[in-house]
Design brief:
The protein has three helices and three strands. Helices cover 41% and strands 18% of the residues.
Length: 79
């Protein structure tokens, strides 16, 4: 199976939390642009966005694990 997008963390702290949760639950992941994204602080542009990817078979479990984090984000974005 292939890797699919799980989440785009807003900052280093959120990325560290996500990585810790995934590692603690033995869910393999890959962070696209992990080190490149921190080279250019400031505006979050699509070319330097960090994207956490997981295997398709783990997306349900990972999504459940990050459920509270993503629910909180949706509430914040809604205003």
């Amino acid at each position: 199976m292939g890797m699919v997008k799980l989440i785009e963390p807003h900052d280093e702290g959120e990325l560290a939390l996500i990585k810790s949760l995934l590692e603690g639950n033995d869910i393999p992941y890959f962070v696209q642009n992990e080190h490149f994204g921190s080279l250019y602080p400031g505006l979050a542009l699509p070319f330097n966005a960090r994207v956490v990817m997981v295997d398709e078979s783990d997306i349900g479990r990972a999504g459940t694990l990050l459920g509270e984090l993503t629910a909180e984000r949706r509430t914040d974005e809604a205003g």
